[in-house]
């Protein structure tokens, strides 16, 4: 005991000496520790007590004070606490692209009086934007987009008179936009230095205040699309002579377009579509910078197409479809050489005069009377416009490499792990992009990274598409490292910072843009703590002295651990066999044994900060194995533990199944009265999380088809290729997880049953499962078959179509679909029940067939249901019908990836149903 006391005192002395010698102000260090102490996935070189002197990742200092905190795309999990006020010298705070960063922005953010840049893009933050943010008088850049903020915009933001960039888009903000009054209350109209108002994809309502805009403003971009604004468009917009992009589309604006818009001489893009505007089209004559106009889906009723359509020299695209325009489209008087598309579909156009000059652009008159005749439908101008063509960055005169798992062959044909995300343009004529434009965008990105001296070898763009919910154009961006096959944390964070803080200046045709980065899983070449400062040298000397004092203790401990390890190598299940009731050690195929001490270390002593789920069965912890693999560790509570024989049976079952669409077992612990299972970590939540908006991932129709196919393949494997076959018995949307590429993985085998030869066909067993998904024949007869899983999967398919829970407000999804379904009508008369986010002007390809398959799966009698192998084949056919290759299942998480409109994120393991043992809570019929 006396020896341990001396050792403790010596260690305390060392800490005190290091604090004295540190280069970091003690207040700042304590503040940083308080702020980040409960965050998970902090950089590994955050060791010691001297962030400035030891070059901690993401920390920059000036005169011993912490001035920058930049930790982007690092999979941080935790909250932004009031301790932020203890870093008063911060001028830059960027924690973007950490979806695990949740909670609210604390009021104490207003204490950071020197803050100039605040970026929290693409996190999981919620609640109101605090009014104290108006105290940050030096702030020039504020980006809070792609979170879950609600409530109103605080008028105090009007005090940020130095602000240049204001982005609060893609949240759930509501109410009216604040303007100042005569009583001294500030408002957005006071932001005279601002060039960017990005506020789209919220719930702003009421009228757009006339006072919001004035001639003193320097605004270039006003983006208020996809809100609930009503009334007339304020004429004061015409006073903002600097305006270049105006998006008011997808609101409820009504009346005529104000004539003052004609004063916007620098306006290049105008979006007024999907409103209730009427009267005559505005006179845009003289707007010589105007290149893109979209006023479709309104009620304009001109009898002649205005002359400016053919006269504006910069004009490339005019979209006026779905209005009440009539008369003649007359192009005989000439038109701009820049013109590429005039879309007037679904109007009342009766005549078209193209003139004698050859037309080099596309005219679309489909849906007009002029195209109603059968012969006319063959004419080029009666055809619908082409969709966005595919594009992938070509190789640079080399041959693509065959790379190992996870690696990608770069445009320079080097295998590497790229940093990936989605690049969006909020105002873009995506119909006119060509390979030259993409090349310009790629070169601009490379030049920007090069100017910041970042370790980037090349970039790749792919998957161009239009986001159906907000019309933003999106591209997958892969950034490849130079000199090595992977980035370190500095590289990823620096690349992300260039994009989050708009340091990258996009070409004009792609501006304004924003980026949503993914967490990077392949870090390498981590910077080591270095310091040339005297204080660090003193600390090193003291450390050597301490080392000499501890050497003997450490040596003895190491020798003891080595002997223990040797015993384990000879018999890794020694602890198992010490239990007289456990039987022989499990026969494992791929999974491995972990000691209790191992898992305690990997979970930071089972700390609360590592907890990612809990329920009646116990808790689930996130852990990191020595090789860097992230795992989910489920620790059974004492009252939920099984007998040793049952636990062994479950482990053997789980270790037997290996398929890319099944969550895999990494290992187990059966020691010191503990039962723990170690699974692969699946980062993107469950299907249910996505359908309810909890995970931050919104899936389009194609992605839903691919998810259904993946889950079906996993189930088919269990039924037909596992030996012996396995019935899952608890298929539901909360038991199908999405990995980092949004591939489906079936999870939770706690209720699964093996079909031994004597039980082929069915097995009589106690009814277990979840209400809403439960096979009625199994429920009545207690005869369990593979078709019971088929029934449950059919319910999941209906969830994918409707985004409704199986039992919602007393209504059963199967019965509701049966009630409205009519195969003789368009979309089988399912308009009232189909999820609106996957239905545009036309029904998604294959949806009717998909519903047919789902309804066959939920037939009352098992004999009438298809097998899972047949379901797989049917979904493959549907995917082919949609024009895709069903063998290509994986895709970037950026495909149809959007921040949800509201709900708090619930972690995928934070689920009472996530259990794997027959005695856990799911071993019963559960209500939804």
From TrEMBL:
One of its GO terms (molecular function) is ATP binding. It comes from the Eukaryota. GO terms for cellular component: membrane. The lineage of its organism: Eukaryota, Viridiplantae, Streptophyta, Embryophyta, Tracheophyta. It is an enzyme of class 2 (transferase). The chain crosses the membrane at residues 536-559. Its EC number is 2.7.11.1. Gene3D superfamilies: Phosphorylase Kinase, domain 1, Ribonuclease Inhibitor, Transferase(Phosphotransferase) domain 1. It is found in: Membrane. It is a single-pass type I membrane protein. PANTHER family: LEUCINE-RICH REPEAT RECEPTOR PROTEIN KINASE HPCA1, RECEPTOR-LIKE PROTEIN 55. Pfam families: LRR_1, LRR_8, Pkinase. InterPro entries: Kinase-like_dom_sf, Leu-rich_rpt, LRR_dom_sf, Prot_kinase_dom, Protein_kinase_ATP_BS, Ser/Thr_kinase_AS. ATP binds at residue 634. Residues 606-879 form the Protein kinase domain. Keywords: ATP-binding, Glycoprotein, Kinase, Leucine-rich repeat, Membrane, Nucleotide-binding, Receptor, Repeat, Serine/threonine-protein kinase, Signal, Transferase, Transmembrane, Transmembrane helix. Residues 1-22 form the signal peptide. This is non-specific serine/threonine protein kinase.
């Amino acid at each position: 005991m006396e020896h341990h006391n001396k050792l403790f005192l010596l260690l305390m002395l060392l800490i005190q000496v290091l604090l004295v010698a540190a280069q970091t102000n003690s207040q700042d260090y304590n503040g940083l520790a308080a702020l980040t102490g409960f965050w998970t996935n902090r950089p590994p070189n955050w060791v010691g007590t001297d962030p400035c002197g030891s070059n901690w990742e993401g920390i920059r200092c000036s005169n011993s004070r912490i001035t920058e905190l930049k930790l982007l795309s690092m999979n941080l999990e935790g909250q932004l606490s009031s301790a932020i006020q203890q870093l008063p010298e911060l001028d830059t705070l960027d924690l973007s692209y950490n979806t695990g960063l949740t909670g609210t922005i604390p009021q104490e953010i207003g204490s950071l009086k020197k803050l100039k840049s605040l970026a929290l893009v693409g996190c999981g933050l919620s609640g109101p934007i605090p009014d104290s943010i108006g105290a940050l008088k030096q702030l020039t850049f504020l980006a809070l987009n792609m979170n879950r903020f609600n409530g109103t915009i605080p008028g105090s933001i009007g005090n940020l008179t130095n602000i240049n960039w204001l982005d609060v888009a893609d949240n759930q903000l509501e109410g009216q936009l604040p303007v100042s009054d005569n009583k001294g209350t500030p408002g957005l109209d006071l932001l005279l230095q601002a060039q960017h108002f990005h506020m789209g994809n919220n719930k702003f309502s009421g009228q757009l205040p006339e006072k919001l805009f004035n001639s003193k403003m320097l605004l270039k971009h006003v983006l208020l699309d996809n809100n609930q604004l009503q009334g007339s468009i304020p004429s004061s917009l015409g006073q903002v002579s600097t305006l270049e992009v105006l998006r008011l589309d997808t609101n409820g604006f009504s009346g005529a377009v104000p004539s003052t818009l004609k004063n916007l001489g620098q306006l290049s893009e105008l979006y007024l579509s999907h409103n209730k505007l009427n009267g005559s089209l505005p006179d845009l004559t003289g707007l010589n910078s105007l290149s893109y106009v979209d006023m479709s889906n309104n009620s304009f009723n001109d009898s002649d197409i205005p002359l400016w359509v053919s006269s504006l020299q910069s004009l490339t695209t005019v979209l006026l479809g779905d209005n009440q325009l009539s008369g003649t489209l007359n192009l005989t008087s000439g038109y701009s050489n820049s013109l590429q598309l005039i879309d007037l579909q679904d109007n009342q156009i009766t005549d078209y005069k193209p003139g004698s000059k050859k037309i080099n652009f596309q005219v679309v008159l489909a849906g007009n009377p002029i195209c109603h005749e059968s012969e006319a439908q063959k004419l080029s101008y009666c055809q619908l416009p082409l969709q966005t063509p595919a594009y992938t960055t070509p190789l640079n005169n080399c041959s693509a490499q065959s790379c190992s798992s996870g690696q990608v062959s770069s445009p320079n044909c080097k295998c590497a792990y790229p940093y990936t995300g989605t690049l969006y343009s909020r105002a873009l004529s995506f119909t006119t992009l060509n390979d030259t434009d993409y090349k310009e965008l790629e070169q601009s990105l490379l030049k920007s990274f090069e100017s910041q001296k970042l370790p980037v070898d090349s970039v790749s763009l792919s998957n161009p598409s239009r986001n159906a919910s907000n019309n933003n154009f999106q591209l997958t961006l892969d950034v490849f490292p130079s000199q090595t096959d992977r980035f370190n944390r500095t590289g990823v964070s620096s690349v992300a910072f260039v994009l989050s803080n708009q340091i990258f200046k996009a070409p004009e045709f792609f501006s304004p843009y924003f980026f949503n980065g993914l967490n990077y899983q392949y870090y390498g070449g981590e910077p080591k703590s270095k310091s040339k400062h005297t204080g660090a040298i003193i600390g090193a000397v003291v450390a050597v002295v301490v080392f000499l004092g501890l050497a003997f203790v450490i040596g003895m401990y190491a020798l003891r651990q080595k002997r223990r390890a040797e015993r384990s190598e000879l018999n890794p299940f020694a602890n198992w066999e010490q239990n007289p009731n456990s039987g022989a050690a499990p026969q494992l195929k791929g999974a491995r044994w972990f000691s209790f001490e191992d898992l305690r270390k990997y979970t930071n002593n089972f700390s609360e900060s590592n907890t990612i789920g809990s329920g009646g069965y116990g808790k689930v912890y996130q852990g990191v194995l020595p090789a860097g693999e992230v795992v989910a560790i489920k620790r059974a509570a004492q009252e939920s533990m099984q007998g040793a024989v049952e636990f062994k049976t479950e482990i053997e079952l789980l270790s037997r199944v290996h398929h890319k669409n099944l969550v895999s077992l990494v290992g187990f612990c059966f020691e010191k009265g503990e039962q723990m299972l170690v699974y692969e970590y699946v980062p993107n939540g469950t299907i249910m999380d996505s359908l309810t908006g909890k995970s931050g991932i919104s899936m389009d129709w194609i992605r839903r088809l691919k998810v259904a196919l993946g889950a079906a393949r996993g189930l088919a494997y269990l039924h037909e290729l596992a030996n012996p076959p396995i019935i899952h018995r608890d298929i539901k949307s909360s038991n199908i997880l999405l990995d980092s590429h949004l591939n489906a993985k079936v999870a939770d085998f706690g209720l699964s049953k093996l079909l031994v030869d004597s039980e082929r066909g069915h097995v009589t067993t106690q009814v277990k499962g979840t209400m809403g998904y439960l096979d009625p024949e199994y429920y009545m007869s207690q005869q369990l078959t593979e078709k019971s899983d088929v029934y449950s999967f059919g319910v999941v398919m209906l969830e994918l179509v409707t985004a409704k829970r199986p039992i919602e407000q007393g209504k059963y999804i199967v019965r509701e679909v049966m009630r409205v379904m009519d195969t003789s009508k368009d979309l089988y008369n399912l308009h009232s029940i189909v999820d609106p986010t996957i239905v545009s002007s036309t029904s998604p390809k294959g949806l009717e067939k998909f519903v047919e398959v789902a309804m066959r799966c939920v037939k009352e009698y098992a004999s009438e249901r298809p097998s899972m192998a047949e379901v797989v084949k049917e979904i493959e056919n549907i995917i082919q019908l949609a024009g895709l290759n069903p063998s290509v299942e994986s895709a970037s998480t950026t495909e149809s990836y959007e921040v949800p409109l509201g709900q708090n994120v619930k972690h995928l393991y934070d689920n009472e149903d996530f259990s794997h043992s027959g005695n856990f809570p799911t071993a019963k019929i559960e209500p939804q």
